[in-house]
Amino acid sequence: MNFLDILALLARGAGYTVLVTLACSATGLIVGLAIATLRRLRLPVVLPLLDVYTYVFRGIPVLVLLFIVYFGLPGIGLKVPPLLSMVLSLGLIAGAYLAEVFRGALESVDAAEILAAQASGLGRLQVLALIELPQMLRFAVPGMVNEFTTVLKYSPFAYTVGLPEITKQATTLTATTQRGLEIYLAVGLMYFAVFRILLIAVRWIERRYRVPGMVPA
Amino acid sequence: MSPVPLIQVRELVKDFDGQRVLAGVNLDIMEGGIKVVMGPSGCGKSTLLRCLNRLVEPTSGTIHLRGQLVTGAGVDVRALRQGIGFVFQQFALYRHLTVLDNVSLALRKLRGMRRLEAEQKAMYELARLDMAAHRDKYPGQISGGQKQRVALARALAMDPAVVVMDEPTSALDPLLTREVAQLIQRLHGEKVTLLCVTHDVLLARSITEQVVFLDRGVVRAEGSIEHLSSAHPDALIRDFFGRESGA
Questions:
Q1: Residue spans per domain, chain A
Q2: Which of A145, B62, B86, B106 is 20 to 30 A from B6, comparing alpha carbons?
Q3: Which residue range(s) make up the domain with B103?
Q4: CA gap B56, B71 in Å, rounded
């Protein structure tokens, strides 16, 4: 078995790695956006709840939360499938971090533009959707790339709840071939390749939506 | 019988954290007229403007627009704002939108126009201000004077009852200030009702003779710059207009 054969076998797990990364990143994006939006609307009852959420979920290790969801919840009769367990742990934690990224990016939207939009008669939600969020998303790109990369790097935890992603394939292969060094080097290469693809995609999106002369206020 | 003012401000008071910024302002703006409110920094000029469209809630007093009370409860504030075109000090163009989208956005989202219709109206306003050629540029790609024109086009696109301008030349050099003055005169010639606040006497002098002097939240004087700078009994007012205009 040569190095290419090892790569080909590991590639079977790459689909799961991408699936976990995409599912958790998408969850993080939705949760982060929802929190940032709700915060911006300054609803008095909701604000403390959002603060508690981001405080708690940023403080819990991914693996601990994953085990609580996957191994703990069945104890009270809630059996959560592996992929959903990843989403409810890694995805929700990513959401808490992205909420902070978005909070910072929203602060970079020029207050005068928000005032001008309100002065034109636009409602609060319209100002948010038409002025604040489109600018905020552009300012948040570097922070989002960081967070998506972190999600990718935490995706091997999926192995602990039985998802056959790259690391799981590598463990099985190592047990049968005793060629751990090559196998885990190949694993590293594969993660790097996924990371590069992610980066290329984000850079393309960034270029596509770049606005000449627009810098954070 | 004298005509009813388009905007009538009576005994307008605004307190911020116990500090009185407007202390009983009275002001009339006639349809098709031009009113310039002047005064030193911090005299309440911008607050007065923001009370007109309820960006700032007045503490007391009344504002009537076309005879309708627009202060107090039960007023459709968003509809009120659509009728008052606002040009901000730093122009406040939406940086992520092109010049054309800056002008057409409110038409689409508030007037319910389809994109084509809104863009035609926006292009009309941009052409009126010699900015049609820049329709696809972003605010970051145009000069301060051009931004000023786009901000004006954005305000005019909604066919407002009045266009209010907050320190329109504070971000511009003297050459552009002259250009803005010409622009304001042109709009005045087209019967656009204008309210402009500024501390720039040269600008005021080049667009109108009659000005209102606001100081410490009240209108202290109203009249021609000539009179205020040389013959007004209050030395502070004479100083303000004399020094600033070089008279």
A1: 3-208
A2: B106
A3: 92-159
A4: 11
The total domain count for chain B is 1
What phi-psi label fits residue B15: left (phi over 0), alpha (psi between -120 and 50 degrees) or beta? beta
Kindly state which CATH superfamily the domain A3-208 is placed in.
Answer: MetI-like (1.10.3720.10)
- AA identity, residue B44: G
pTM: 0.87
The ipTM value here is: 0.91
Tell me which chain A residue has its CA closest to the CA of residue B76: A121
- CA angle, A52 then A53 then A58, to 5°: 105
Within a 10 A sphere around the Cβ of B124, how many other Cβ atoms?
14
* Chain segment A99-130, per-residue pLDDT in tens: 999 999 999 999 999 999 999 999 999 999 99
Share of chain B above pLDDT 70, in %: 97
What value does the mean pLDDT take over residues B118-131? 95
Interface of B with A (CB under 8 A): 53, 55, 78-82, 84, 86, 88-90, 92-96, 105-106, 109-110, 138-141, 154, 158
What integer is the mean pLDDT of B58-65?
95
B112 interaction partners in chain A (CB closer than 8 Å): none
Question: What is the spatial distance between Cα A32 and Cα A91, in angstroms, rounded to a whole number?
Answer: 10
